[in-house]
Amino acid sequence: MRWIALVCLVACGGSDSSTIDGNNGSNGSNGSGGNPTAKQFCVSETNRYRAMNSKPALTESAQLETYADTGAMVDFGSTPHNHFSTTSGGGIAFAENECPQQGNWQYTPGQDDLNMVVGNCIAAFYAEGPGTDYSTHGHYINMMGNYATLGCGIYYSGGKITIVQDYGN
Fold it and tell me: The pTM is what?
């Protein structure tokens, strides 16, 4: 088994404190009106990039989502990938991508579009492009990896946000 943990540093715009539950979509509102929730968007956007590279779609996993939510909250207050590393993926996650608040990722409920912030995070992973060096292409390698499931976790506080993707079989 490969355990892959890498960090992405980019910026997006942040207040209050919350783990995003499965019912929150853009701007923290309910996903009605055709807007997917932020976690659904995370999976569908990842699958959009995978489709561009002839990779099969990943299935959204509630178990991985719960694990990723905990990871986003723990890592927000410590260091990127701390939760994943200290729990060895919790026995369910085999790779992780993260946009950490320490990398100046920002989100302000009611001001920023949460799906846009998530989309920018995933775009940064994809922008690393193909390659074999995990230090420069690791997020892309994880996105295109031979995984079957994906869980996304989101935690924000004080204008900062941490977004975690955990990949499983």
Answer: 0.82
